[in-house]
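Researcher: Please predict.
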Amino acid sequence: MKEKNENLSWVSVRLKPEIYTRLKEESRLLKVSLSYLIRVKLSNDQNRLIDTKGILNTIDKVVSEQARVNNNINQLAKHANTYRDKIPTRIFEEHTVLMSKHLEYRDFMNKVLKQIYRVIK
């Protein structure tokens, strides 16, 4: 957000080196100027700076982990079908209950992740 210089006043501030370094790093990560970052932090507005790259990376990791879980489930199902006659019926019944819970949680998680992604983009 570019502001006109005539609407701004200059202020000099002294900061400890560690605070300055932290603010500088945060402004670099968020890709905003140091001045803008400080104005947002000092304002009472509800403006929030969000590290969208970090959130997107985390979503990517969650989706990758979910793909690995789904792959493991497929491998277990393949083995279960191969040795069907040696596995008690109770195991298949428990599997059906657990699988329906997993699918419910997975669908909910996908829905939430899509909503987050839409808000960020």
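Model: The radius of gyration is 25 Å.
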